[in-house]
Design a protein that fits this description.
The complex is a heterodimer of chains A (about 325) and B (about 600). Chain A is of the alpha/beta class. Chain A contains twelve helices and twelve strands. Helix content of chain A is about 35%, strand content about 25%. In chain A, strands 6-7-8-3-9-10-12-11 form an eight-stranded mixed β-sheet, sandwiched between helices. Helices cover about 50% and strands about 15% of the residues of chain B. Chain B contains 21 helices and 15 strands. The chains are: A alpha/beta (about 325), B alpha/beta (about 600).
């Protein structure tokens, strides 16, 4: 029984141009101690999916249908007060952009202590002691709790964000692009830290990133999204070595490999489709090398191809004609 | 270094930024600190070559690119534009000084920084001259006007010429501060000079009037009461005189201020030189979401370089060139794009607009500053391919700045690795990636994620972050983070003390009592705690591999009741050629 299971999630944003279905029938599950990579290009709905798990969607966004099961509770149906007990004590998030997610006019110690005091109702002394421990855990000296965010470098701020996410001993941590915009060396430091924390604290983790090569090194399983749809899920090995969806293949091929041949990686021609008027049939067909008439008419379902490796492509289920 | 004919060569290129100082510190002329963003780099880029500069953020890659284009003012060194291979090698060989004449001559002919400096000094000279002239003219007008006004009021019979002459002297003295262009405090000085002018002019008016023929009256007026002078000029007169003085001072101040602003915008004669340069050297910026003006159409953005650099004559020519550049950048047909605004374009299209803006001047050399790092992976190659095609078609030369080694690997002819303002290793791409020599290069390559879950490789994760470029470590600047640092890499007594603090846990903490650096090269204990020497020797033999600062210990000897630990002397490594085309600056080689 998975710890967290998202089923058929549909999220819509109301905009002046009409409803935008940023997440359109997405399902995935996360086992205990497992780490799942959620990948895709910008605007494919990764972050929206994560925010709906936390029920932190912006005002114009709403969960239309589907369920998010966590330990027998459907998070989409909980009242706000109940959701507040889930947030941070059970599921927490490392927000995107460590540079901007911290409040610049408050000391970082106070910012980390805030969720502890709020959720656990402890006094300042206990909270501050926890802050010290958390900072040491992520590799920052505890005396720096009295510093302001601008006194930290980007990598250090990301560590602070991680400490904040761990403040109330959650079981699941969602990391939204935790290493984007960081230097390669700092990136490696942060990923190593996340891996260590996952091991030591037995965390389950959802890693959201556009960088597949980062996931190859850190995740157990992967889910690839395209234009609000899930196109392929499975273990990292299956998805990488035996990709069944053309989009996954193209995406993997787009990364230059420093240990491989010295050739320019491939690219995917065309642009990401508009989510207000998504293409008929398979959403990837206008950019797909293998598309044929069926792809324009019928939307492929996510089909299990064995061993939990699923892909949503007609190539796997129908004999190609023409 | 390369078989190609060089297009661009940097020699001992430096860009330093002075740290911001407070007003008082600037007045006291305290020594300004410098952020040494680029600290003396040598590199040669061949014609049609793609040279990749790689390094962490803040290592000076972008500053190098901007410095070449004179977008930031280089502090020192030379940027040679299209020198011949022979000239460059002769320039390098002449370092010792026996061929100084040749070096000067080459600088004069081909060094951008040298030319910029002469342009700048010419600019400053002309500016000062014009400021002086403006000051003189305004001063004459102000002083003469004032005296003529007084004359009219008093209906005196003084000679007009005398008044004019007196006015010149008065005005000149009153406007002196403006004739000097002060870099730091122009506004403060101009403001302060208004009351100063008023005071000086009142005093001088009084003196001039006294000398001009009513001494008896003035003397009598002054002697009757302390406010005698005020009585002497009746109320009305005084008011008018004051008003005139004030107006004259204000007019001078405003006029010079406007002039200074105008001058700054135009950059004077230098602008013509820069315009010529900009048509040869261009830049593509990193973030197409921020580098395009959201209120300009594609046409506005791409045509702007043509207009500000005064390249085209007439609208038709401009339009034709814009269209060609947009089409060459892959936005086809161009007419569909010209009237769009940036928000109507995707990320990749925006970057194409940025590229078109650089291309429209038909440059020979382009600095591509992380042109794809803000784009989605799936379209990066498209943009990179475009840049490569343009090289084929136009024979462009690129300085490609990136932090992504795997991109450099597939793209560059040669790669230079920068750390804290210096190039630490440079070589042909394949050789550098397959066989990195500098420990920093090795570490950088080891942390590049590999898109294959089956390959688990050893990652060399460096501790900490890059040091502050305004406080660069002595010796090799990489030594505090280097996993292979040894004796002569640059350890100081402070660093050794920090390491000992780290190692002195529990009971051992007592050994640090009385420890103090004795200059940078030694650590002294007075008096030495019992067992200190044995503890230190034990650490040096056991922990030196994990705590590299201990390697620097040269000798431990008792001295005057205490103990003295002397460190190895160190030096900064220089770039050495270690293999064909590969240069490394590391003491290991």
């Amino acid at each position: 029984m998975p710890l967290l299971e998202v089923k058929d999630l549909q999220v819509a944003f109301t905009t002046s141009e009409g409803d935008v279905h940023a997440v359109d029938g997405v399902s995935f599950s996360l086992g205990e101690g497992e780490s799942l990579g959620l990948a895709g290009e910008s605007g494919c709905g990764k972050t929206t999916a994560a925010l709906s798990i936390m029920r932190l969607l912006p005002k114009n966004g709403r969960i239309v249908s589907g369920s998010i099961n966590y330990q027998g509770y459907d998070l989409t149906k909980l009242r706000d007060a109940q959701m507040r007990t889930i947030r941070w004590q059970h599921i927490s998030i490392i927000f995107q952009g460590a540079m901007n997610a911290l409040n610049p006019v408050r000391r970082i110690g106070a910012q980390i202590a805030e969720p502890i005091k709020l959720h656990e109702g402890v006094d300042d002394e206990v909270a501050n002691k926890r802050v010290g421990e958390l900072l040491e855990l992520v590799g920052i000296h505890k005396d720096r709790a009295a510093d302001y965010p601008h006194e930290f470098s980007g990598g250090m701020r990301q560590r602070v964000m991680i400490a904040m996410a761990l403040a109330c001993n959650p079981k699941v941590v969602i990391a939204d692009e935790p290493v984007t915009a960081l230097d390669v060396m700092i990136q490696a430091q942060i990923l190593e830290l996340l891996e260590r924390l996952k091991r030591e604290l037995g965390l389950s983790m959802i890693l959201i990133s556009h960088d597949l090569s980062v996931m190859a090194e850190t995740c157990d399983s992967m889910a690839i999204m395209y234009a609000g749809k899930m196109v392929e899920t499975g273990s990292v090995r299956d998805v990488y070595k035996n990709a069944k969806h053309p989009y996954t293949k193209d995406l993997i091929a787009a990364f230059p490999d420093i240990k491989g041949a010295r050739v320019l990686p491939a690219y995917i021609p065309g642009d990401i489709p508009s989510l207000v008027h998504p293409p008929q049939g398979c959403r990837f067909h206008p950019r797909c090398k293998f598309a044929w008439s069926l792809c324009e008419q019928e939307e492929p379902a996510l089909v299990d191809l064995g061993g939990g490796h699923c892909a949503a492509c007609h190539l796997n289920t129908t004999e190609r004609r023409e | 270094m390369t078989e190609r004919e060089p297009y661009l060569a940097l020699r001992d290129f430096q860009v330093w930024f002075s740290k911001r100082r407070g007003f008082v510190a600037a007045l006291r002329r305290s020594e300004p600190g410098f952020v040494r963003a680029v600290d003396g780099i040598d590199l040669t880029i061949g014609k049609g070559e793609i040279y990749c500069l790689v390094g962490e953020s803040g290592c000076g890659k972008t500053t190098t690119g901007k410095g070449i284009l004179q977008l930031v003012e280089p502090t020192g060194g030379d940027v040679f534009l299209s020198p011949t291979a022979e000239e460059i090698s002769r320039f390098d060989a002449a370092k010792s000084g026996d061929d100084a004449g040749f070096r000067e001559d080459l600088r004069k002919r081909k060094s951008l920084t040298y030319q910029a400096k002469t342009q700048r000094s010419a600019r400053d000279w002309i500016a000062n001259l014009l400021f002086g002239l403006a000051g003189v003219v305004l001063a004459i007008l102000a002083g003469t006007g004032m005296l003529l006004g007084l004359h009219a009021i008093h209906q005196d019979s003084l000679d007009l010429l005398g008044y004019v002459a007196a006015g010149v002297v008065l005005g000149l003295v009153g406007t002196l501060p403006w004739t000097k262009m002060s870099r730091h405090l122009p506004h403060a000085l101009s403001l302060a000079s208004i009351p100063a002018t008023v005071i000086i002019q009142i005093a001088l008016t009084a003196a001039a009037l006294a000398a001009a023929g009513r001494p008896a009256d003035l003397g009598a007026a002054l002697s009757t009461s302390p406010g005698g002078y005020l009585n002497y000029l009746d109320e009305n007169t005084l008011f008018v005189a004051l008003l005139e003085i004030l107006l004259a001072a204000l007019a001078t101040w405003v006029a010079t201020g406007l002039f200074a602003g105008y001058w700054d915008r135009r950059r004077g004669v230098e602008a013509d030189w820069l315009r010529k340069l900009r048509t040869r050297l261009q830049i593509v910026f990193q973030d197409p979401y921020e580098s395009l003006n959201p209120r300009h159409t594609v046409y506005d953005i791409v045509s702007e370089p043509l207009l500000v650099n005064r390249v085209t004559r007439g609208r038709a020519e401009t339009a034709a060139r814009v269209e060609r550049a947009v089409s060459e950048a892959g936005l086809r047909p161009p007419r569909d794009y010209l009237l769009r605004y940036p928000h109507e374009l995707s990320g990749g299209q925006r970057q194409r607009v940025g590229i078109a803006g650089a291309l429209v001047l038909e440059p020979e050399f382009v600095v591509a500053d992380e042109p794809v790092s803000m784009l989605d992976v799936s379209i990066r190659t498209e943009i990179v391919e475009l840049l490569l095609q343009l090289r084929e078609k136009r024979g462009l030369t690129y300085l490609f700045i990136t932090h992504d080694l795997s991109l450099a690997y597939v793209l560059a002819d040669r790669v230079g690795v920068m750390y804290l303002g210096k190039i630490v290793e440079e070589g042909p791409t394949e050789e550098l990636i397959a066989n990195p020599r500098h420990p920093y290069t090795k570490a950088l390559i080891s942390v590049v994620p590999i898109p294959d879950p089956d390959i688990r490789h050893e990652r060399m994760i460096l501790k900490g972050e890059r040091p502050d470029p305004s406080n660069i470590p002595p010796g090799c600047r990489f030594h505090p983070r280097c996993p292979a640092a040894f004796e002569k890499c640059g350890w100081t007594s402070e660093e050794l003390l920090d390491t000992l603090r780290e190692l002195a846990v529990g009971d051992d903490a007592r050994f640090l009592l009385g420890a103090a650096p004795h200059g940078p090269g030694a650590l002294a204990w007075r008096p030495a705690p019992d067992g200190l020497e044995a503890w230190l020797r034990g650490l040096v033999t056991e922990k030196a591999e994990s705590h590299r600062a201990l390697k620097a210990v040269q000798s431990i000897q008792p001295e005057g009741g205490g103990l003295m630990v002397v460190l190895h002397p160190f030096e900064e490594p220089t770039l050495k050629t270690v293999a064909p085309g590969v240069i490394v600056s590391c003491h290991l080689y």
